[in-house]
Amino acid sequence: MESYNNFSVAIYCPVNDLMDITDFNEFSKLFAWIEKHVRVDKVYLETYRGGRLIDREHIEKIQDFFRSKGIETSGGITTDAISDDEGGFKSLCYTNPKTSRILTQIVEFTASLFDEIILDDFYFTNCRCPFCIEAKGDLTWADFRLDLMRRVSENLIINTAKRVNPNVEIIIKYPNWYEHFQDTGYNLEAEPHIFDAIYTGTETRNPKYTQQHLPKYLSYFNMRYLENVAPGRNLGGWFDPFESTYNLTSYAEQAYLTLFAKAKEIMMFSLGSLLNPEYSLCIPIAGQLFTDTDKYIGKLGEPTGVACYLPFHGHGEDYLHNYIGMLGIPLEPYPTYPEDASTIFLTKSATKDKNILLKVQRSLMQGADVIITSGFLEEATRLGFQNLLANVVVTNRKARVNRYVYSNDGGISFDGCEESSKEIIIPQLEFHTNDTWELIAGLGEDNNFPILLKTLYGKGRLYILTIPEDYGDVYYYPRRILLPIREIFSEDLPILLDSFSKVALFMYSNDCFILHSFQPWYGDIKLKLKKGYSSIKDLVSGQIISAEQANGAVRLRLAPGINRVFKLIKG
User: Fold this and answer.
1) Based on the domain organization, do 191 and 46 belong to the same domain?
2) Which of 267, 295, 323 is the last residue of a domain?
3) Which residues contact 230 (CB under 8 A, 6 or more apart)?
4) Domain for residue 345, yes or no?
């Protein structure tokens, strides 16, 4: 099977799976199932995990096996501790001298075997043993762990590996839980400069039924974020089949969104699980989607979207960006403030930057649109938001709403009334009449509560978007209410999506875009074409669909889990 044209495919092989290979003829028959469906370019062979270190002679035989098939081999290390009876994941204790000796030996051994090594995303610390408590002193846990893992990375990992093998390149794989990196020592500010390259976790689960609260859009968003953290050195995206068997489309979506984010390599975890009958269908699914996606992914330009700012070590409104992305709003996240962007979206995590209000003010003075959330507003109040920007506050009161109104005249009056199928809880915001304008409101009894506010500042526009207490309740905003929200995000985009929720829009720099519905049912949507575009071309079928002359809109019917890939056409 020939390699794919636009990306490579790798498989991560945990040490337990490798140690279980005792008959290479029998293993070759098992591996043939993968080879039948997927062109594997590389395998990452793990040397250590959870107290088990592989034998040199055995891993060299495994290297020879894969090389004989034309498959490149790299190394892998998982720095977790032997599990106990407490549950959860247990990290190594990096303040214990014994850990330093053991880790040094593991790195030396692995560097002597491979010229490339990846650290699985257990390279963190959650240890609160007496050693760590004493070493922490008066620091916060985040500050203590960030500095600790920076020193471990330089001294125990990089220096050790390079001493044994000067040609070795070490890759750090970052997990999917980007909001909490700093709390376990993942130093996104320092480590990408310490390591030779990074890798991205793009695994998503069912957000409702698992302890990881990760909407599907995260498989795209996290990849784009880390691409902007280390441009050109983010080597790929890593996904797995776990907790996806409730709907195998959710397994496929991890791979699709990783590729939509333009991953250079896509990593399938893991060898043993992919050969397990429980996940046997994942292999042909992956093989077919790789083949299908490879036909059009090279026709797409660079991913683009509304600029978001996630400062290093920031935290707040957990993973909210991905709920917004699930509303059909394309996002492009950055670890530094996107000062040249014409539309900027800021959640509470952006207030980690103590100069954020001055940066917002500068953007507004230059004519940018800045969209902030109610969570950002609440946190920015203590930074002087009201004195500098606008007289809007988040009160300590809540409101239950399921009826909504919107304005067609900039907030002077309301038109129409929309109703949702579920009553949701929102924080109550207060603003000053005729100083700030209410574009969308939730209705109370002889009262209403702002959902979208607007005020002019300098040459720009400042918008405040109220976020429900349950972030997932944004999906219950009626379609007609979602439209003005999408309008403010899409000011500079060539299309405006008019759709139900849980439809993602992926935009690219060469007038191409992808639509993907995460809903379980078929639904009709509209695309308003702007900036002189008059039709769209389906990049899979070749069909050209012209916009209606009356309103400049294209009507489409979306099927669950199916990608629609288009290019905009002018004239």
Assistant:
1) yes
2) 295
3) 192, 197, 198
4) yes
Say whether both 520 and 571 belong to one domain: yes
> Residues 264, 354: one domain?
no
The DSSP bridge pattern shows strands 460-465 and 563-570 to be unpaired
464-498 burial: b if 16+ Cβ within 10 Å, else e: bbbbbeebbbbbbbbebbbbbbbbbbbeebbbbbb
- Give whole-number Cα distances, 379 to 134, 233, 372, 392, 457, in Å: 32, 34, 11, 12, 20
Contact 233, 197 (CB under 8 A): yes
The reply to whether 213 falls in a domain is yes
Say which CATH number the domain at 541 has: 2.60.40.1180
Q: What are phi and psi of 370, to 5 degrees?
A: -120, 125
Asked whether residue 2 is assigned to any structural domain, the reply reads no
**H or E segment and range at residue 440:** strand 437-443
Q: Are 291 and 333 members of one domain?
A: no
Per residue of the chain (571 residues), what is the pLDDT tens digit? Answer: 789 999 999 999 999 999 999 999 999 999 999 999 999 999 999 999 999 999 999 999 999 999 999 999 999 999 988 777 676 788 989 999 999 999 999 999 999 999 999 999 999 999 999 999 999 999 999 999 999 999 999 999 999 999 999 999 999 999 999 999 999 999 999 999 999 999 999 999 887 888 777 899 999 999 999 999 999 999 999 999 999 988 999 999 999 999 999 999 999 999 999 999 999 899 999 999 999 999 999 999 999 999 999 999 999 999 999 999 999 999 999 999 999 999 999 999 999 999 999 999 999 999 999 999 999 999 999 999 999 999 999 999 999 999 999 999 999 999 989 999 999 999 999 999 999 999 999 999 999 999 999 999 999 999 999 999 999 999 999 999 999 999 999 999 999 999 999 999 999 999 999 999 999 999 999 999 999 999 999 999 999 999 998 899 999 999 999 999 999 999 8
Shared domain for 478 and 502, answered yes or no, is no
Report d(CA 481, CA 214) in Å as an integer.
Answer: 24
**Pair 395, 337 in one domain:** yes
Q: Is the peptide bond before 501 cis (omega within 30 degrees of 0)?
A: no
Residue-range definition of the domain harbouring residue 538:
494-571
Distance (Å, whole) CA 320 – CA 303:
20
Q: Is the same domain home to 63 and 150?
A: yes
- CA 113 – CA 198 distance, rounded (Å): 20
Which one of 483, 509, 539 terminates a domain? Answer: 483
Measure the CA–CA gap between 364 and 171, rounded to whole angstroms: 39
**Total number of domains in the chain:** 3
Residue 545: C-alpha distances to residues 486, 511, 539, 548 (Å): 23, 15, 11, 9
Angle between helices 24-37 and 282-294 (to 10 degrees): 40
Task: Indicate whether 506 and 404 sit together in one domain.
Answer: no
Sheet holding 553-558, edge to edge: 495-498, 523-529, 553-558
> Does residue 489 lie within any of the structural domains?
no
Contact between 406 and 480 (Cβ < 8 Å):
yes
